[in-house]
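FW: tagging you since you asked about this chain on Friday. Here's the raw sequence from the shared folder, copied in full. Didn't touch anything.
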Amino acid sequence: MKSARLGLIALAAVISLPAWAEGHNDAGMEKANTCMGCHGIPGYNNVYPTYRVPKVGGQSPKYLEAALKAYRSGERPHGTMHAQAASMTDQDISDIAAYLSSAPHHRE
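HL: got it, structure written out here
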C-alpha cells in the first residue's frame, strides 16, 4: 500500500512537469545582457579571427534554443559561444531565446 501511494505521488509529480521549459521575456532580457555586447551592435565584426557576428534579434526561439544548446554541448564549435552557454540552464536558454526572438534586429 505504501509503495502504491509513493508511486502515485511520483506519477503525479512527473505528469505536472512541463514537457519543456517555457521562456520568459523579462527574465531573458536580463540574462541576455552579455549576448547584446556582440549581437546587439549593428554591423559588428569580431577582431580576430575576423568574422561577422550574426544577428539574433527576431530569430525563431526554437532555433535560438537549439543553437545555444549545441554551443553548450560543444556540438557547434565556437570557443566564445561555448564559454557563454556552458553554464546556462535549460531555463536560462529558454528565457534568452524568448527575449531575443522578440528583440528588434538591426539592419545595416
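FW: The CA atoms of residues 4 and 10 lie 10 Å apart.
HL: agreed, and Confidence is low (pLDDT under 50) at residues 10-19.
FW: great, closing this out.
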